[in-house]
Structure formats: structure tokens, C-alpha cells
Design a protein that fits this description.
With about 600 residues, the protein is an alpha+beta fold. The protein is built from 23 helices and 16 strands. The strands form five sheets. Strands 1-4-3-2-5-6 form a six-stranded mixed β-sheet, with helices on both faces. The chain has a four-stranded antiparallel β-sheet with strand order 14-15-11-16. The protein binds a DNA duplex (9 and 15 nucleotides) through α10, α12, β9, α18 and α19.
DNA sequence: TAAGTCACG
DNA sequence: ACGTACGTGACTTAT
């Protein structure tokens, strides 16, 4: 439902612009939105700006619409210079939906947007992280208003047009509405956040400042050694060809090694290999676990495993990353999504820099291509055992608290408790078991899952779990209480009060409910870790600015921050970075960050 | 567009 | 008896 009356104005003259400048200069809060040529934040050019200070009354300033017989528009440079003082003034409060994006667009035109007081994307995320946060959904949910969508205006697929081709009257209906709806969404959602002290803290002290830091991290980008990756691609390609040949020979025919369907036909129809497990759709699985199992008795699965690992490295990393280099900056600029992961974590896209290989020797080499510019080094600092420390804090389990307080190896200490040994007497096998158990605890494991991971019988796994909970009663109580809480409230909280909703926690569907219970166990730990590293990012960037250092934050990988640091600042950053990360909060256990330095990301680990 | 698979914390 | 460790994003094939 549209509001009773709207007044949307297309600004085409200096007189109109002057009038709107007077309005936004005086307004306590201005809703701001940009229309652009592309969704790539680092490349998009501004096509228009919309403004709204009062529900139903908005302006669209077209700046670069270029279609046949388009009306004359105010010149973009002229308008931006006219607005620069207001845009860059931190004391003039602005509001938007995903202002990190708009900040990039302004930066693309030399404007440093300041004074972002509110962001409806982040309000929605803090209020209900598990729901959708796009403006069309928010307008339907909170305003019962159906908005004009981008697809309505520009079409989709091959026939989609660029926004600069949209007629001014239609563009105004769409763009002015966006600014208008954003202001109304703020008026509806902000009270939901403001009425709760903890949610306000998450929104104001964590999410809003994090958005500003993220925009800078994204703009900084990371330098890639494209030649090195090309060399690796060539080598991977050669090896894949050889493996392919072997696979055809073993199969007795050529087939597409990338096709699970064709692999299934060869394995289970032609060669009659046993079906180890099935996919959710009921077809026999050929995933890594299955291939490992089959490789014990047959040669082809092993060959396929090798092929898969190389193929992954080549297509997703060594081939792709060089193509993601921005020609203007010579660097790779990821996009951090701040309102996607329900737990409070960030995610990274185009490219995803949070899943660069590390677990295999082969894969690690890709990190050698993440390099520092001449005269700089890469510094990486990661939180040590952050989620287990948070579990110790939340559960107040005496044995866990003591182990961390005394700086013990936590897996060794855990094994000592389970197997009733002094830490020094724990075997490497026992430590490995304890490590798997500790990970399982963070994920809300079952005896079945633990058995699968340890490669033991379910009864044996159950025995380890029983022993664990006998020695760590605090952890057992914490998990029981968490489940009870989740069922009673429908949500659980991080240490800082971020809410993680569990819509299926009381579902009559057993598997779904149990899934929600596991998520409830995991969420406070994963979510608190996310809170902590966001606070770290804010603290580190504040410190770099205050000290006027030229070191740049260039990546965040959940428990790790990566910086590119001039050699002159190396000693200072290397000392201070882990201190800042450890000092962002005082929990019942000490926080610890470990730092590494090198010419590339691999060697900084 | 969905399914399967696999990279990370 | 059921399904079975949390949270992500990208690539490839096949429909």
C-alpha cells in the first residue's frame, strides 16, 4: 500500500538543487541513496542521487542518464561539489540502506561520505538476523508497502538495461521511493533496536562502525602475484591432464571427471562399486568421504580424489583470482557482506577471500600469491582458540577456566581430564581425540557425528562424551541451559547481547528441531567470536588513524586480521596489533592473538 | 535454477 | 525409527 500522498521531485535546475540543499542542511536526518551503472562497488559510476527528509517527500537528482532525447541534467561534478560540504560533514546525519555501498560510489567520485548515523540494513540485521534484509522485503514486512523493484524498472536477464537508460520520470518514481521508504523503515525499525540496551550496543558500537572499517578494507584491496598464479595454473593443468588419462584407463572409457552423474554411472553401474552413502536426493554420493572409503579397495576413486583437489584449486583460485584484479588499482577488492551470516559473522564474495586454501601443501601455495607491495610486509594476527575460550567464559566451567588461565594447551588439558592423565602423559593419539571432541562440542555434536569423525563405534564415541561431561560439568550445564533458553525465548545471545533467533527450535519436525538445537549451542560461541573481531577491527583502525600510520587492514577471516605494513611500521604494528585484539574485552579467560610476518600471506602464518 | 561438491573458520 | 557437527561462497554439470 502506497502512502496517502507522495511528492517526488526531479531536480533539474540549480534553483531546485539550492532548495534541497537548504532542506538537507537543516534536517535532523536525511535519507540518502545513489543510483549507479553497476553493482560492483569499486567500479560503479553515479547516475543519480535521491534524498528524503520527511515521509512522502523526496527528490531525485539525475546526473548521468544518457538515452535518446534525455532531458538536460545538472552536471555531475557540479552537483557533487555543491554537495561536498554536506556529504563530508560528520555532523550532518545521514541514513541509508547499506551505506557501505553508497560510500564506495561517492569515493569513486572523490567524495568521502561522513556522518552515516543510521543504516536500515544493519538495523534489520541486528533486530532479526535470520530474516531477509533487502528493501523490498523490509517494506512489505514493516510498512506493508509494495515497492517498485529494480527489475520493474530495468528488466532482467539479457534484456536488462543500465539505470542510466531509464527515463527520468520512471527513475524518479523508483529512486525517490527508495529514499522515502528507507526513511520510513528507519522510523519503524530503529525503535525496535533502541528500546533494548544490548541491541543498541551491537548496532551503534559494533555494526555501524564496522561498516565504516569494512568499506576501507574493501577499498584497500589486496595485492596478488598474478604471474605466480598463472604458473601454478599451468602446472595444475598439466597434472590434471595426466590424471584424466589414468582415470579413463581405469574406467575403460573417457568420461567427464567433473560430473558427479557420470562418475556415478561409471562407479555404481559399470564397475559395481558399493554405495557408501546417498545424497539428499537419493542418488549414490561420490563426495570426498565416499571416495576415501572406496579408495581403500579400488584404484579409480583415489585418482578421482587427486583430480578433484587439483581441479578445485585451479578453477576457483589460480585461474580466477588474477581475473579479479581491478585494472584501476591493480589489486583484488572483495566485498564483505555484513548482514548475511545469521551468527554475526561477515561473509566475503567476488572473490571470497575467506576460503583461500590452507589445509594442504598444494593449496597453501596459493597464499604465496597474496603479497605485500614493495617496501611492505604482510602481518597476520589470529585469535587463539577463540571459540573454546568463549565456551569457557560462558560455561564458567572450573576445569576449562583453569586450563586457559594457566596457558595450557587446551586439547592436551582436555585429554588429560578425559583419560585421567597428567597433561605430560597424554599421547598424541589422545590429544587428537580430545581436539575432535572439543570441535564437536562447539558444533553441538551427537555421538553419531563424533563416531564418524573419530572413526570409532558409536558406543565408544558415547563413552568419550560421557567422560567429557563427567569432568566438565559446567559445560554440560551450559549446553542444557542454552537449549532450555532457546526453547523458552526463541533466541540465544552472544556475550554482548547479539540475538540469534531459532525459528525451528520448537518445531514438531524432529530433525529440524534438533538442527535448531545444535545451532543454538553453536551460535553464542560463533557469534561472540564475531563480535570480538569486529571490535578488534574498529580498535585497530582507530589506532592506525590516531597514530597516522599508513599500514592498511586488508583482510578479515573470522578469527584473523591481515594487514599490509610498511617496513618502517613493522615493529610497532607487530607489537600493538595482538595487544589490541586481546584487549577488546575482558572475559573470564584471557584472550590471546598470535602474530606472524612475511613477504606474503603464507609466510605470515 | 538446482544439485553436488569442496574451499575456509 | 529418524537423521545426525555450526557457519559461509563458488564452481561445474545438468535440467
Amino acid at each position: 500500500m502506497a502512502p496517502v500522498s507522495t511528492s517526488y521531485e526531479t531536480v533539474l535546475t540549480d534553483e531546485q538543487l539550492d532548495k534541497w540543499m537548504a532542506i538537507i542542511e537543516a534536517a535532523p536526518l536525511t535519507s540518502l541513496d545513489t543510483e549507479t551503472t553497476s553493482l560492483e562497488p569499486m567500479r560503479a559510476q553515479m547516475v543519480g542521487i535521491s534524498l528524503c527528509c520527511e515521509p512522502g517527500v523526496a527528490a531525485y537528482i539525475p546526473l548521468a542518464h544518457r538515452y535518446q532525447d534525455a532531458p538536460a541534467q545538472l552536471e555531475r561534478g557540479h552537483v557533487l561539489e555543491r554537495m561536498r560540504g554536506w556529504l563530508e560533514n560528520p555532523a550532518r546525519p545521514k541514513l541509508g540502506q547499506n551505506m557501505k555501498y553508497d560510500s564506495h560510489i561517492f569515493a569513486n567520485h572523490g567524495i568521502r561520505l561522513a556522518g552515516v548515523a543510521h543504516d536500515t540494513l544493519l538495523q534489520s540485521y541486528v533486530f532479526e538476523s535470520h530474516r531477509s534484509h533487502d528493501m523490498d522485503s523490509l517494506a512489505l514486512r514493516h510498512l506493508e508497502r509494495k515497492t517498485i523493484t529494480y527489475t520493474d524498472v530495468c528488466g532482467k536477464g539479457a534484456s536488462q538495461i543500465c539505470f542510466d537508460q531509464v527515463a527520468l520520470d520512471r527513475a524518479t518514481e523508483y529512486a525517490a521511493e527508495d529514499a522515502d521508504v528507507t526513511l520510513q523503515l528507519h522510523q519503524t525499525m530503529w525503535p525496535h533496536v533502541a528500546e533494548n540496551e544490548k541491541l543498541s550496543y551491537i548496532y551503534e558500537k559494533i555494526e555501524l562502525p564496522t561498516a565504516t572499517v569494512l568499506q576501507r578494507v574493501e577499498r584497500n584491496g589486496v595485492l596478488i602475484d598474478a604471474d605466480l598464479l598463472a604458473t601454478q595454473s599451468n602446472e595444475l593443468g598439466r597434472r590434471m591432464l595426466e590424471i584424466e588419462r589414468q582415470a579413463y584407463e581405469l574406467a575403460g572409457q573417457p568420461f567427464n571427471l567433473n560430473s558427479p552423474k557420470q562418475i556415478g554411472e561409471i562407479f555404481f553401474d559399470k564397475l559395481k562399486l558399493p554405495v557408501v552413502k546417498k545424497t539428499p536426493s537419493g542418488t549414490p554420493s561420490t563426495d570426498e568421504e565416499v571416495l576415501q572409503k572406496l579408495a581403500e579397495d579400488y584404484p579409480l576413486p583415489k585418482v578421482l580424489l587427486d583430480y578433484r583437489s587439483l581441479s578445485k584449486l585451479k578453477s576457483t583460485y589460480t585461474d580466477k583470482l588474477p581475473r579479479m584484479v581491478n585494472p584501476d588499482t591493480g589489486r583484488v577488492h572483495t566485498n564483505y557482506a555484513q548482514a548475511v551470516a545469521v551468527t554475526g559473522r561477515l561473509s566475503s564474495t567476488e572473490p571470497n577471500l575467506q576460503n583461500i586454501p590452507i589445509r594442504t601443501v598444494e593449496g597453501r601455495r596459493i597464499r604465496e600469491a597474496f603479497i605485500a607491495a614493495p617496501g611492505n610486509v604482510i602481518i597476520s594476527a589470529d585469535y587463539s582458540q577463540i571459540e573454546l575460550r568463549i565456551m569457557a567464559h560462558l560455561s564458567e566451567d572450573p576445569a576449562m577456566l583453569r586450563a586457559f588461565a594457566e596457558g595450557e594447551d587446551i586439547h592436551r588439558a582436555t585429554a588429560g581430564e578425559i583419560f585421567a592423565l597428567a597433561p605430560a602423559e597424554v599421547s598424541s593419539e589422545q590429544r587428537r581425540y580430545a581436539k575432535v571432541i572439543n570441535f564437536g562440542l562447539i558444533y553441538g555434536m551427537s555421538a553419531f557425528g563424533l563416531a564418524g569423525n573419530l572413526g570409532v563405534e558409536r558406543a565408544a564415541a558415547q563413552m568419550y562424551i560421557d567422560k567429557y561431561f563427567l569432568r566438565f560439568v559446567g559445560v554440560r550445564n551450559f549446553m542444557d541451559e542454552t537449549r532450555v533458553r532457546a526453547k523458552r525465548d526463541g533466541y540465544v545471545e552472544t556475550v554482548f547481547g547479539r540475538r540469534l533467533w531459532l525459528p525451528e527450535i520448537n518445531s514438531p519436525n524432529g530433525p529440524r528441531r534438533q538442527g535448531a538445537e545444535r545451532a543454538a549451542i553453536n551460535a553464542p560461541m560463533q557469534g561472540t567470536a564475531a563480535d570480538l573481531i569486529k571490535l578488534s577491527m574498529i580498535a585497530v583502525q582507530d589506532w592506525l588513524d590516531a597514530e597516522k600510520l599508513t599500514s592498511m587492514m586488508i583482510m578479515q577471516v573470522h578469527d584473523e586480521l591481515v594487514l599490509e605494513v610498511p617496513e618502517a611500521e613493522l615493529d610497532l604494528v607487530k607489537t600493538r596489533l595482538p595487544q589490541l585484539m586481546a584487549g577488546v574485552a575482558t572475559l573470564r579467560v584471557p584472550l590471546q592473538a598470535e602474530v606472524g610476518v612475511g613477504p606474503n600471506w603464507e609466510q605470515a602464518h
